[in-house]
Write a structure and sequence with these properties.
By secondary structure, the chain is mainly β. It is built from no helices and 5 strands. The chain is globular, with a radius of gyration of 12 Å. The protein starts with 5 loop residues before the first strand and ends with a strand.
Length: about 60
Amino acid sequence: GSAGGSVTIDLHRTSSGEKVLTTSRTGDGAFSFTWYDNTEDVFVVARESSVLLGRSDDDVAVMN
């Protein structure tokens, strides 16, 4: 639920919590990452103006 501003989305490794990629979107728009490892769990965290909007479940990346 974005307020319509810029949303920063960070991709993290589940095993270490390390942030490995960052992207952004406007409002509730679409986003994507280019990530080639489908063997380890990752999760994303979304923030708008430094306010946490949400965190995904841990899972392996899938190709769309």
